[in-house]
């Protein structure tokens, strides 16, 4: 059964060509505090090199991939083999799937250690994700600004503060028509953990 995600009472944050929805308090503060501590301590965080403009550079954040076995996921010139789902990730995936009606096979985890860790403009449009992928993005920890802009025009820029326990759902044409980033900031921020649930075909 589909829940409220695609109902008319939920505001689409994109003006055209795609759908993006924000649920600021998807998990309670208490539950979010618990998940943040668990994820920080138990996930297999590491810093991976990616290819940018023909050069290998270290990503300005730590990452970990979990998911269904024997289904690697690649982006920006790297291929990651998923680790087995942890109990906490399974619990979160179940809650998000029940709410959205979308099935997920993998979760790419990102740890932004401070305001200098970032993610540049990109689209999650790899062929293995299918034509119009749905990406569920969970945030725990420090609030970071999530920015969207139209891919072709570089206009219609949208700033969305992603807070502790919030769920951002991107679906429809959003990954083809819009790109997004987490910019650096000079603010003295603590760490942020971001989980991006996705379905590999």
TrEMBL record:
Metal-binding keyword on record? yes
Q: For the Fe2OG dioxygenase domain, which residue ranges apply?
A: 103-201
**One Pfam family it belongs to:** 2OG-FeII_Oxy_2
Gene Ontology MF terms in the entry: catalytic activity, acting on DNA; demethylase activity; dioxygenase activity; hydrolase activity; metal ion binding; oxidoreductase activity, acting on paired donors, with incorporation or reduction of molecular oxygen
Q: Which UniProt keywords apply?
A: Dioxygenase, DNA damage, DNA repair, Iron, Magnesium, Metal-binding, Oxidoreductase
Q: Which GO terms describe its biological process?
A: DNA alkylation repair
Q: Which InterPro entries match?
A: AlkB-like (IPR027450), AlkB-like_sf (IPR037151), ALKBH3 (IPR032854), Oxoglu/Fe-dep_dioxygenase_dom (IPR005123)
Q: Does the keyword Transcription regulation apply?
A: no
Names of required cofactors: Fe(2+)
What this protein is called in its record is Alpha-ketoglutarate-dependent dioxygenase AlkB
Name the source organism: Algoriphagus lacus
């Amino acid at each position: 059964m589909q829940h409220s995600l695609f109902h008319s009472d939920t505001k689409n944050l994109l003006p055209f060509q795609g759908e993006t929805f924000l649920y600021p308090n998807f998990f309670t503060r208490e539950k979010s505090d618990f998940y943040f501590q668990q994820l920080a301590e138990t996930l297999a965080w590491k810093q991976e090199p990616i290819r940018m403009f023909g050069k290998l550079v270290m990503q300005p954040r730590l990452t970990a991939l979990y998911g269904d076995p024997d289904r690697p996921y690649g982006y920006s010139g790297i291929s990651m083999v998923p680790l087995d789902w942890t109990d906490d990730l399974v619990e979160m995936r179940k809650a998000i799937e029940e709410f959205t009606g979308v099935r997920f096979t993998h979760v790419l985890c990102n740890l932004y250690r401070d305001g200098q860790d970032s993610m540049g403009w990109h689209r999650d449009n790899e062929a293995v994700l299918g034509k119009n992928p749905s990406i569920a993005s969970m945030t725990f920890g420090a609030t970071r600004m999530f920015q969207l802009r139209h891919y072709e025009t570089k206009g219609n820029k949208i700033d969305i503060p992603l807070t502790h326990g919030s769920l951002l759902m991107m679906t429809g044409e959003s990954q083809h028509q819009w790109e997004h980033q987490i910019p650096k900031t000079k603010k003295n921020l603590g760490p942020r953990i971001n989980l991006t649930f996705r379905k590999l075909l």
